[in-house]
Amino acid sequence: MKFESQPSYSLGHRTPARREAAASEIGANVTLVSQSALGAINRGRVLQALYDNGPKSRADLARLAGVNRTTITGIVQPMIEEQLLVEGDAAPSDVKGGKPARPLYFNPDAPMLGAVLLLPGTIQACLVALTGEIRAVTKAEFDPFGDRQAFIATLTKTLTSTLSHAHQAPFGIGVASGGMIDSDNGVILAVNLAPVLTGLPLVNILQEHFSLPVVIDHHPRALLVGDRWFGPGRGQQNFAAIYTGEVLGGAFFIDGKVYRGLAGSGGELGHTVVQIDGEICNCGKHGCWETVAALPWLRKEAARLGLPQPGSITCARLVKEAEDGSKAADALLDRYTRNVAFGIVNLQQTLFLNSYVLHGDVAGGGAKAAERVRQHVERLVVKRPSQEISITVNGIGEGHTALRGAAGLVLSSHLKVVI
Amino acid sequence: MKFESQPSYSLGHRTPARREAAASEIGANVTLVSQSALGAINRGRVLQALYDNGPKSRADLARLAGVNRTTITGIVQPMIEEQLLVEGDAAPSDVKGGKPARPLYFNPDAPMLGAVLLLPGTIQACLVALTGEIRAVTKAEFDPFGDRQAFIATLTKTLTSTLSHAHQAPFGIGVASGGMIDSDNGVILAVNLAPVLTGLPLVNILQEHFSLPVVIDHHPRALLVGDRWFGPGRGQQNFAAIYTGEVLGGAFFIDGKVYRGLAGSGGELGHTVVQIDGEICNCGKHGCWETVAALPWLRKEAARLGLPQPGSITCARLVKEAEDGSKAADALLDRYTRNVAFGIVNLQQTLFLNSYVLHGDVAGGGAKAAERVRQHVERLVVKRPSQEISITVNGIGEGHTALRGAAGLVLSSHLKVVI
DNA sequence: GCAGTTAGTTTGTACCTCGCACAAACTTAT
DNA sequence: ATAAGTTTGTGCGAGGTACAAACTAACTGC
């Protein structure tokens, strides 16, 4: 399946950044900002403001950004003509009177975004509208230890089926995957639990097959973007997404942008050391955070303490059993959330993001579990004056956040807010 | 002492950013970039390129930044007229011939920067030229537990003496201080070892006294800026400065800018946990990195192992004794550098900066100590393909790096590369 | 019906980068 | 010595962007 007609107005990404290429060829570490880049930046920021604040009138946007109303008109008008944005019904005017404002927001019928969530054994694909709406979810399974060609066939088939629901060519495809990802080169470096994915140049494969822009990033980063887009991180400039489950991971939103180290590294929190010479970890080192705050630890402890069905213990069950009066469950929940807290404490001492969104197993324990974690963090951190630490769970639901985040990856790679 | 004539060309900071103020008043989280801001940004980047690469011709700068030569001329000409930059002698032309290039660099006679280093009990002040040269160093002492007015008098007297060596009004004064600093509001929040400084609104005091722009930040951040300016971090886009000594701290240069959390927080690495329920720390928590990698730990272990003069043990001495054949010193050095490595490992797993500059006690151990730390880090980190970790010491010398960094703080607060 | 208020647009201006053309200065080949 | 080729640095006009002032549109309240 090939999409022919690329929308001429690809989300503020008008001209390919040939200057960047030229500059990077000679290894320049400095790039000046050109006028046209300035336009793209400001277009991106206006869209960002719309995501952060919901539908807003031109005048509101101007006030929000501290710029002239005419500037906003200039930025917004072409996007309305391209049918990326739409004017809503006139809002009732203020108490003081005046011409009623016409709120602007994303056109639900604008091209959508393709999203793929790749976890060991399962594929999920869907379309995401610019309004955040999720459509045409398709699921499939694959053998994590199987044949590479078979996997690629399954993936393209699933994605083709999903994309066929779109009326027009999507802006691009975003992929979120477990494991270690090189997002710069679009390659899956390694997934311990799904060797078939190891070394897969997925971006090239999908780009060729669908003739669409494709971006890939690792799972926690997709969760982060999903949180930022329509979740608890909405409008925030600094926060982290933390994933707990069979493994631990994290991703950071720093000063208004997603943190990505070289080749898309960063956030491999599972293997930070919290116990020098502690238990051995999957990675071969000792005392990683993952050895005391992931599900394998929880199962082992549940078994040791004689809790019922330790093999299928989760934070959610632990919260429930503790509420039902089990002292043992309560005690274990306390130790579990404390161990989870240590990783967050170390992150807090390092970056002081002050805001953390939990995903995965601990998030399954809901607000109760999050509050326990928060209390441990508060106790364990060196507080600065008037500093509030917020720890929340994303109520939207794991899969949807990751898929939306995968879609958001495409957006953020196009609205280069970074300069 | 009051300086009257502010240079009209304050390092690319032409107009006060009144828009930012307007936008922040209504709590906007989005700011559009204006034309004049763009000019300031690009001016800043050209200066940055000069710092990173040394004297360069207009044509070289244009190539480095990937822009037109005429653009560089437009940026650079006013700065030459303001005598901020000077044209050097014509360089011999290339093998292929052509008009010889005229390298540009900072005018040694341009206004300088005032710098202050404030550590418990001691004050150091100096002038720093835009070329990095340090002049008119003045030192003084103060009673860490003494009277606040007395301290302020000593500080202003010292600084006045230093500043009197300048021919013209400096661009501003940068202060680096130990302890916890609120750099947004210019207040020293707390210094455990010097209570007289606690709660001191130093920026206001100095600004009023000298009528100059004043910035303050904590010690590791000054080291970072010093490293970046003329040290091992020169030209780098991502690295961290790590300070070890009586306490531990760090600061990060991320994606080409100094990382500062809310109110100048961030980098309080000493109190990240590396040993859950480990030894108790000064901060009241258990198992902080500081409990196993700072000088108190080293002294305690040296005493326990019966090393000579454990009370004055340092990394430098340990390296020397190990070289002289002491097995005990060698073993302790290995444990010490390993413990130091754990903090760096955790930082590496979190941000993947790949490059670390050591300061303080471990830096006193020179390249040998750094190499030991590097080997431990290599062993303890989960490596990504083709990832090199560099750990260096700054050979320029502690005090000078911090002073130069303090001066650099003024520069970087004026060449707002951040958008 | 009119004053007051707010939203959005039109018009002209200022600023910035870019591409082109050109003079200046130097090397190499004849 | 002269000509050709190369590189540096500078005017000049074009194109794009944000801004300010002035205007129209639409609504409220008296």
TrEMBL record, chains A, B:
Signal sequence, start to end: none
Listed GO MF terms: kinase activity
Keywords assigned: Kinase, Transferase
Keyword Phosphoprotein (UniProt): no
InterPro entries: ATPase_NBD, ROK, WH-like_DNA-bd_sf, WH_DNA-bd_sf
Record-given protein name: Putative NBD/HSP70 family sugar kinase
Organism: Rhizobium mongolense USDA 1844
